[in-house]
Amino acid sequence: MKPSRAGWLFAAPALLAIAVFFVVPVVAALVMSATDFDIYALADLRNTRFVGLGNYFQLLQTPLFWRALLNTLFFVVVGVPLSIAVSLGTALLLHSRLARFTGFFRTALFAPVVTTLAAVAVVWIFLLHARYGTLNYALSWLGLRPVDWLGDPRWAMPAIVLLSVWKNFGYNMIILLAGLQAIPAELYEAAQLDGAGPGAAFRHVTVPALAPMLLMVSILTMAGHFQIFAEPYVMTQGGPAERTVTVLYLMYENGFKWWSLGSASAVAFVLFLFMLGTSLLQGRLAGRAGWSS
Amino acid sequence: MRRPLAVLTVNVALALIALVTLFPLAWMVSASFMAPGEASTYPPPVLPHAATLANYRLLFAEHGILRQVVNSLFISLLATGLSLAFNLTAGYAFAKLRFAGRERVFRMLLGALIIPAQVTMMPLFLMLRGMGLVNTYAGALVPWLASVFGIFMVRQYALSVPDEMLEAARIDGASELRIFVSVVLPVLKPIIVTLAVLTFLGAWNDFMWPLIVLTDHDVQTLPVALAALSREHVQDAELMMAGAVITVLPVLLLFLALQRYYVRGLLVGSVKG
Fold first, then answer.
1. Cys-Cys crosslink for B247: which of A53, B222, B234, B252, Cβ 3.0 to 4.6 Å?
2. Residue B250 lies in a domain
3. Is the distance from CB of A36 to CB of A51 less than 8 angstroms?
């Protein structure tokens, strides 16, 4: 057997699986988003009609859709910078020559990343409990009044941001730590010779060297944040006052609770467009700032 | 700042962050041993007054959670096996076997990474429904067959396999399959472990797709069953914590045992050029 035939044979099973279970569904979803596929179509496909961009226009006129978009954007805009700041801060601490037991600390800080999101969301329901939760208890030491984290419309999404930062910062921490370790020591020595203190060295050596990695990390983290679903599903069921209905939560409800699969597909594509748009925008902005990776 | 003081500051900061990070997990374990209602007192207790296994007993005896443990274990193990079979062969092919259109197909695969998987969920559900695979293990396994990321990870590693090694085996008259099994796979061992760990954890922790495709209690995975249970038992913190421990502990232990391999996979994903 020639290597060229072998190559196709070896790649074929995976390519076939991706074609059948990914590419075909993506195309089908695009078609479905242009139909009124609903619970009647589920019984008989002939009950489906082509509606063009009807689902999309319908969404634009649905207040809950705008609410979901706004909630998701809040989660992205507040959660991503916060999460990356914590990742960078802890990575710098772990990278410090003064740090001891770094192996243990690295594992401890990374542990939440591998835990099951749905399960730790359940744990956090109780940690965030207005009356008996540990968080409010800790706040009371600081003289702060208890917050009804998951019951107050103003605090439900910030509470989910807290959980998400706790759960995810370890991931980027490991990546940024690897980035810090790859910066040649000579650069710091040269900066020191030029009379730069720790602050100046951070600004002029660490940040530029880490910039491409920070860009990649923030694009990936954003993509992940846009896909928030399990937290509101488990912790708040979209409430209170619809303040934690996210785009994917809306897609799930439209699609698998009300069986409006056409409309749900349209929601999915709106999410995709947002993710694509923000990634391109970030790449463009970074390019302009001279952060080419 | 004088050096001893600086050392103290850095390490105290790290210790405090580690404490805050580990607290939710420690509290989960501790509360799972508390008597019913004990966690819902003020001030919130850190340790159980008298540790009890009652919550675990209740979960296994009354709620039959063993069924979901088995489901999760089966689905995650099968997902791991399937993902290895599909991604190892394809990753090796994209790295080491020449075939027409290889680079173009590979670029298309990487391009597909920007499409979020949730887009596929509605048609995929209809497709599986047509095939009678809703509420079956097979339905839950479909997304784990092959992944672009898995292929990419194997390819990056397989690129370092020396061509001379493969050529030598070819000159000896070994078939391509034979070469893959007895020459390539042994060299790929580290990345095999990495891919296996990542897939097992990914499948175990997965939530949205199993929630959609496994609506029957008897076939549900632990995270999905736990979410359903928590809606019925909003007040029973101790019971829910026992359920969370059963769900989280296996993956946490697996990670601790194979940490090195897990982190390797994470970094492969981050340095794609």
1. B222
2. yes
3. yes
Residue of A10, A129, A134 with shortest CB distance to B89: A10
Q: Torsion-angle region of residue B241: left (phi > 0), alpha (psi -120 to 50) or beta?
A: alpha
pLDDT, tens only, B122-138: 999 999 999 999 999 99
Neighbours of B74 (CB within 10 A): 15
- Which chain A residue's Cα is nearest to B215? A256
pLDDT at B3: 78
- CA–CA separation, A266 and A116 (whole Å): 29
- Average pLDDT along chain A: 94
Phi and psi (nearest 5°) for A50? -80, 130
User: How much is the pTM?
Assistant: 0.95
Ranges of residues in chain A whose predicted pLDDT is under 70: 1-3, 290-293
Q: Is the Cα torsion angle B224, A167, B231, A230 positive or negative in sign?
A: negative
Residues 6+ apart with CB under 8 A from B119: A25, A26, A29, A265, A268, A269, A271, A272
**CATH number of the domain at A53-180+210-288, out of 2.60.40.10, 2.160.10.10, 1.10.3720.10, 3.40.30.10?**
1.10.3720.10
By residue range, what is the domain housing residue B150? 53-270
- Residue in the structure block whose two tokens are 């290889």: B102
Question: Between chains, do A99 and B21 touch, taking CB under 8 Å as contact?
Answer: no
What are the chain B neighbours of A125 within 8 Å (beta carbons)?
230, 240
Please check whether residue B205 is in contact with residue B251, taking contact to mean a CB–CB distance below 8 angstroms: yes
Taking each helix axis from N to C terminus, what angle separates B237-257 and B222-232, rounded to the nearest 10 degrees? 160
For residue B88, the number of C-alpha atoms closer than 13 Å in the C-beta half-sphere is 23
Alpha carbon distance B237, B48 (integer Å): 13
Could you tell me if residue B10 is inside a domain? no
Residue A35 DSSP SS3? strand
Distance from the A90 Cα atom to the nearest Cα atom in chain B, whole angstroms:
8
Residue A176 structure tokens: 């940024």
Is residue B120 within 8 Å of A26, Cβ to Cβ? Answer: yes
Longest distance between any two alpha carbons in chain B, whole Å? 76
Residue B124 lies in a domain: yes
ipTM of this predicted structure: 0.94
